[in-house]
Write a structure and sequence with these properties.
With 111 residues, the protein is mostly helical. The chain has one domain. It has 2 helices and 3 strands; from the N terminus they run ββααβ. A hairpin with a 6-residue loop joins strand 1 and strand 2. The chain is elongated and about 50 Å long.
Length: 111
C-alpha cells in the first residue's frame, strides 16, 4: 500500500512534505498556484500534539508539577513526530489561496 500524498488542486502534481507550509500560503512548485493547508487540519494537528504530550507522561504515572513539566518538554518532539506520522496516514487538504486585497483594491503580496 503506497502512502497518499497531497496534490495541487490546480495541476494535480504531488506535493512533497518539504513543500508544504502549515501556517502560511505557499506556491505549487510546478504551476505556481498559491496554495494553503486547511485550517481545520492544522487545528486538529495542534490539539492532537498537545493531547499526546499530556497523555504520555500521565500514562507513565506522572502527576502534578512533574506532569506539567514533562508535557511542556515533550510537546515539541511529539509535535514533530505527530506531523510526520499523521501526514503519511491522512494527508492535509490543500486549497487554492485567495490573496488578501487591500482597501484600494490591490492584492497583498503572497510571500
Amino acid at each position: 500500500m503506497g502512502t497518499r500524498r497531497p496534490k495541487c488542486p490546480g495541476c494535480g502534481s504531488v506535493l512533497g512534505n518539504h513543500e508544504l507550509r502549515l501556517t502560511e500560503p505557499f506556491r505549487c512548485p510546478v504551476c505556481g498556484d498559491p496554495l494553503y493547508v486547511s485550517r481545520s487540519y492544522v487545528w486538529v494537528s495542534y490539539w492532537l500534539s498537545i493531547l499526546l504530550s499530556v497523555l504520555l507522561p500521565l500514562a507513565l504515572g506522572l502527576r502534578g508539577l512533574a506532569l506539567i513539566l514533562a508535557a511542556i518538554l515533550l510537546w515539541v518532539p511529539v509535535t514533530i513526530i505527530e506531523i510526520i506520522v499523521v501526514r503519511r496516514i491522512i494527508p492535509p487538504k490543500i486549497g487554492r489561496h485567495q490573496p488578501d486585497v487591500t482597501l484600494d483594491g490591490r492584492q497583498k503580496p503572497l510571500l
